[in-house]
Amino acid sequence: MKLNDVSVQGLTIRTWRAWIDAALTGAMSSRPLFNVRPGRDDRFDAIFIGGGAAGRFGAAYLRAMGGRPLIVESFPFLGGSCPHVACVPHHLFSDCAAELMLARTFAGRLWFPPMDGVVVSIREVVELFRRGRTGPHAVMNYQTKEQLDVEFVLNAPAHIVNARTVEVAGRRFSGRALVLATGARARKLDIPGAGLRGVFDYASFVNDLDYEPGNTIVVVGGGKTAVEYASFFNATGRRVVMVTRGRLLAAIPDAETRAYVIDRLVEQGVEVHEGAELLELRDGGDGRVGSAVLRVGGERVVEATDFVFAAIGEIPNSETAVRALGVETNAAGAILVDECLQTSVPGVYAVGDLIGPPMEMFKARKSGTYAARAIMGEAVSFRPASHPDFLHTHYEVSWLGPGEEEARARYPRLVTLRLPPDTPDGLHVGLPAGDRVMLYALAKPHLSGFQKLLVDGASRRIVGAHHVGYGAKDAFQYLNKLVRDGITIDELGDLDELFLNPTYFIQLARLRSGAKELIGI
Amino acid sequence: MKLNDVSVQGLTIRTWRAWIDAALTGAMSSRPLFNVRPGRDDRFDAIFIGGGAAGRFGAAYLRAMGGRPLIVESFPFLGGSCPHVACVPHHLFSDCAAELMLARTFAGRLWFPPMDGVVVSIREVVELFRRGRTGPHAVMNYQTKEQLDVEFVLNAPAHIVNARTVEVAGRRFSGRALVLATGARARKLDIPGAGLRGVFDYASFVNDLDYEPGNTIVVVGGGKTAVEYASFFNATGRRVVMVTRGRLLAAIPDAETRAYVIDRLVEQGVEVHEGAELLELRDGGDGRVGSAVLRVGGERVVEATDFVFAAIGEIPNSETAVRALGVETNAAGAILVDECLQTSVPGVYAVGDLIGPPMEMFKARKSGTYAARAIMGEAVSFRPASHPDFLHTHYEVSWLGPGEEEARARYPRLVTLRLPPDTPDGLHVGLPAGDRVMLYALAKPHLSGFQKLLVDGASRRIVGAHHVGYGAKDAFQYLNKLVRDGITIDELGDLDELFLNPTYFIQLARLRSGAKELIGI
User: Fold this and answer.
1) Angle of the B505-512 helix axis to the A361-375 helix axis, nearest 10
2) Smallest Cα–Cα separation from B151: which of B361, B30, B5?
């Protein structure tokens, strides 16, 4: 077979980038790329269908354990939707939202230009992303081949022959196990007009946007993704109308934290309609949406708009595997797995977004590695423990553990340590202050963030933490481990803070930990 | 005595702010303020001389334990030099440096204005700080009085009568113990012309600047403070000439990390002269410095400048206590203390910067609380363990543990996990990517940061971590605890990352931890 086989060459990141660029622009789109060792039979320990976070980490882990994995990926790059249309662009847009809020708040002062009436090009940001994204793609391919020593086939769909065999570009591969890792996709709107141009989800927005959105944007949904993109659109200087059937940001467990987040969102000008609905999209006359019909507070409202963004959930890409193998799913289409990530079909595993929520990166990657361990004969049990979480508005919002209300029910002697202080003028004092909120803290203090630590006064253990600001999200990863391990307020207060720290938890803990009977602050 | 006694009133943050403003602008500068309970004798468990970080946290802790502390502070606010002239303005200037580097990098693109030739007013930033700083000051006074229930005297110097007694504004107080917490001050230049106007340290810069510095700034020193302020001055659009006798940023333990930091500093235009010296400052004709005479590479160089910033170290403010009590000091003027923070004079303790390095916030605050515990009868031993550390350039630079060189000597099977990848084109790939580096990662990848994790392949324990970027500094506080407790690469890889995380340590660990024989990445 005359196929593009790169298994014996070392490829630089630069070479990969050029190849991915060509493949994505269509020049080589029909040509699969094989990185499969010659001279060995095509038998693997596991074949991963899908080389996104779950498949790639699973394959890497299996390889590190000494096994032989194969990844089959239809994109010309590994890493999946995250670097192509999901987490990476989301972070770019959220960075822009944070920067633009700062620029608008200080417009005309210091070095910030006047921003009154300035509408920032959304298209330019999207195009900057499209140009840049092949860089990280190339690193993934390079790392997976040269550093992680994993074999793969790119730019070609996998056809599942049976529970042990896949066919890719006419070539058959078999493995002791099959790992399904085909991810999830955005749920589409199911209303009249949903098929019009100008209706986007996170993926089509990045891939397909070919015009500059007008002045009003309608965002459907009230979860993380809806708010993250709404904040960006708002920060560009557009009117943003959010429509959600339920409560906005119900994911934020602490009521006061949630209120701070929503208050700031509304202060930035986002129009939020809870308990509302998008009923219909109408053609503007050119096949693109021209207006949106909403139900808001029992009234029908028509908004003129040429850009609608839907973030109403995710659907696991399970259909192909169900058809080919009969693996069982739940009602939401998520493939059912046991604690070893094995599906209802012996020897067939499923990982990542495909098995349902939480559809988060850590779960995707870890489920991949746990499947690998199971396949390599380890007795594993993948039961995600209480994990930290985050979202972006114009801010980074991070949390772990329950909110104050739930914690108070669970721990009668709960105490809270918080900033700003819980006083009538507390919101207008320059604390918290820390990296990237200093201009706010000194000149617009109510914008400098909010944070709260929950402590069980009986056991003295930290039970929850909540933060709105910048620079704390990373910390929650490690703090969550300390909290899971039972860290007390006394131990927390004995840590060494790097002041001014975005989380003031260490020093607040220290101020109070001298007392036998804890009180809040 | 007709003194200003506020002990029986509740004071709001707003009231405190007005009073501090008045006191600082001189309107009430001679009037001490007493927050001392009436109807109790003036006998305390401990009198803290100095209400900065060390004294305030010590007093709060002692009070939480049930003791009765008194703070005597010559400023009209608690919190000391940190919120007034040190850490807080430093963080403001560092935020400005980060924002300005971004604005200059993307000038004329997206929403960023053209920045060519734009010189940002330093004075405006300083004045913004001066106006804003009384906010955090007010919170400290409020918190200390209303929430922490600590008594204090403000706006009045303490005269040490003996090891148990101080006199403040004509009133005597005595305690079972005296805690010296008077901090440190910037070392002054000792060269001809050092007394000219236009020569600043971090404190006088914030307090005294009354003109707009010209186009060239000379910074003397090569440590954290020198680089932090040099980066800010550079970011404003000025030429910055750094002169240091030794190596720049020798504090950064990892050579590759240090090189990345210095390369970026030089790329931003900072002129660095190592092994160089400031010899003399010359009068510009108006009593202000007009030029600086340097020794650079054996040559005498004259730089025209009207602004010189000296960051050549700190001197403990120990003289008064030495004179009054005869407490012993080391050659650098730091007061000698035992593991209970007790000085050579029984019953007299010393805490904070006054006892020498590390002159960091965590040490100041913790030494205060350990002294409080000792005074209240606890058997304590204050021996700072290996602590995390950080500095700012235009970036946040954070580290814990040794650098690669030292670690390699200590752990023969050391492996490193790093980003960007260690390849010829590695610096020019869009990783690491994460909060606040997304524009760099996608459009100027070599500016998106550097990170490295050190793992002992034998024990599999994490032994060091190094990060240049944003949003990781806070994490190092908690990660340091995990590392001290012996976390392994396997346990780290099992944490739940919040992707895109500024530190990629969790996922890099997971990619490699499947292997029995660890290898780097």
Assistant:
1) 10
2) B5
pLDDT per residue rounded down to tens, chain A (521 residues): 234 888 888 899 999 999 999 999 887 656 899 999 987 777 899 999 999 999 999 999 999 999 999 999 999 999 999 999 999 999 999 999 999 999 999 999 999 999 999 999 999 999 999 999 999 999 999 999 999 999 999 999 999 999 999 999 999 999 999 999 999 999 999 999 999 999 999 999 999 999 999 999 999 999 999 999 999 999 999 999 999 999 999 999 999 999 999 999 999 999 999 999 999 999 999 999 999 999 999 999 999 999 999 999 999 999 999 999 999 999 999 999 999 999 999 999 999 999 999 999 999 999 999 999 999 999 999 987 789 999 999 999 999 999 999 999 999 999 999 999 999 889 999 999 999 999 999 999 999 999 999 999 999 999 999 999 999 999 999 999 999 999 999 999 999 999 999 999 999 999 999 999 999 99
Same domain? A205 vs A218: yes
Residue type, A92: L
CB–CB of A378/A247 below 8 Å?
no
In a domain, B122, yes or no: no
Residues B159 and B232 occupy one common structural domain = no
Does B61 sit within 8 Å of A507, measured CB to CB? no
Å between B214 CA and nearest CA of chain A? 17
Distance CA(A52)–CA(A73), nearest Å, equals 8
Any catalytic annotation for residue A78?
A: yes
Are B217 and B305 within 8 A, CB to CB? yes
Cα distance between residue A303 and residue A291, in whole Å? 5
* End position of a domain, from candidates B312, B332, B355: B312
* Residue B288 within a domain: yes
Quick check: is B281 in a domain?
yes
| Domain carrying residue B303 | 199-312
* Residue among A395, A478, A497, A521 with most chain B CBs within 10 A, to mutate: A478
Alpha carbons B281 and B292: distance in angstroms, whole number:
5
For residue B206, which of B134, B138, B157 has the smallest C-alpha distance?
B134
A14 lies in the same domain as A158: yes
- State residue B11 phi and psi, 5-degree precision: -115, 135
B475 and A475 within 8 Å at the Cβ level: the answer is yes
B453: its two tokens: 């994790």
CB atoms within 10 A of CB B458: 11
In the residue annotation, B340 being an active-site residue is answered as no
Our count of domains for chain B comes to: 3
Write out chain B residues lying below 8 Å of A501, CB-based: 473-474, 477
Least Cα distance to A450 among A497, A403, A486, A513 occurs for A403
pTM score, whole prediction:
0.97
* B399 and B351 housed in the same domain: no
CA distances from B439 to A94, A307, B105, B398, B418 (A): 11, 24, 10, 21, 21
Mind spelling out the 3-state secondary structure of A285-352? CCCEEEEEEEEECCEEEEEECCEEEECCCEEECCHHHHHHHCCCECCCCCECCCCCCECCCCCEEECH
